[in-house]
């Protein structure tokens, strides 16, 4: 009797496996600890879960059969499920460039701010004194007591002559961390601190913490922590940055649907995204199929040459073609405008007129996509029976009617899944928009970055990374809406294809 492949054949063979599992699990646990120690508890938890799952699947006999699917499941959870879930979570927070920190770090940043009194500012030099150092203030002739400069320290200044040995500036700069923690007391009791790489001065903290949720500024203004919005606020309601991350519920979604400056451009971009994806599929399919039919003509000479030339756009990397077209459509020096001006006396504003910019995007995308459709059509056309066409021709049908009544209906079913895939690709074709127009020209009257040629993907990217405020939370909310819409479209396509297949099988 042969042993099953997924169960160890003997107890002795378990020892090397368990040792290997133990070593890898310990390494993963150590990585989880390092991530947690570096302030990344979420990624530390993911690494801990991975270590636990690995130890259970590869260490326990009961689950050893799942070792083949464990890497795939782990990859899906870490690289697909986790980013989706985390993006959705961000959509319910105020995460932005103004709200990057935790509350504790925000308090630390605000209380570390200080104002320098320029009237007390004076240069300094550092004099070695055995294992310690002295601070020399040449303008006032004061020399500090010896200090170690290895932590928070205070030293008294006294009148003295200039030390015989002073450190070079570059050597003193190496001590900047200790200098920043040093407080000097002048003979009259004035406290001065390091105000830069070259000076000491009286430094007044801008804010002091008087309670867990309250700060007071140097002018006596009281700041109160508002944990609903993630900012300290003055009594008048003015926000003091930086802020901290907090959960704000559905506020981002309310902004999307209630703010005219957001809702207006979003609706426009949403409609344009669908139009762009649909027209891209229709145009690439039409051009590719037309060229494939022409290349199938038996009397056409130099077919091989034509095929090579027509496939070239597919062979050249897309980003190169897009950048080339960006130069060709240049409004002032591009070859396209030079030709149009020479022939018709016109110079279209391809990048500043919204309608022309969208037309340019469709033209470039058609150029990039038709070779793929042409290659597919050339294969599908070969599968259409010739006797069907000949029978229709004998009945007196024209070539055009034969194509639309016999050829096209037979190649559409195998084309349909590929057309749906092309629609999904173009729905999120951010690379084309980003390299060709960057979403420009901008839509007037908006409170967020939104352009005439933006699609939902590029719009979300600009909102999260190109905007001065970098509103990651709002971008996460819009991403969730996009996810819901795309999921609904995909489900509708799946249902339609399943029903069409059932009808075909019923007729058969």
Automatic annotation (TrEMBL):
Superkingdom of the organism of origin: Bacteria
Location, primary (coarse class): membrane
Family classification: Belongs to the binding-protein-dependent transport system permease family. MalFG subfamily.
Gene Ontology MF terms: ABC-type maltose transporter activity
Residue ranges of the TM segments: 18-36, 42-61, 68-92, 269-297, 304-325, 360-381, 402-425, 472-494
Protein name: Maltose/maltodextrin transport system permease protein
Keyword Transferase on entry: no
Residues in the signal sequence: none
Subunit field text: The complex is composed of two ATP-binding proteins (MalK), two transmembrane proteins (MalG and MalF) and a solute-binding protein (MalE).
Intracellular or extracellular location(s): Cell inner membrane; Cell membrane
Domain ABC transmembrane type-1: start-end pairs: 270-493
Record's bilayer topology term: Multi-pass membrane protein
One Pfam family here: BPD_transp_1
Biological source species: Yoonia litorea
Biological role: Part of the ABC transporter complex MalEFGK involved in maltose/maltodextrin import. Probably responsible for the translocation of the substrate across the membrane.
InterPro entries: MalF_N, MalF_P2, MalF_P2_sf, MetI-like, MetI-like_sf
One of the record's GO cellular component terms: maltose transport complex
Classification via CDD domains: TM_PBP2 (cd06261)
GO BP term, example: maltodextrin transmembrane transport
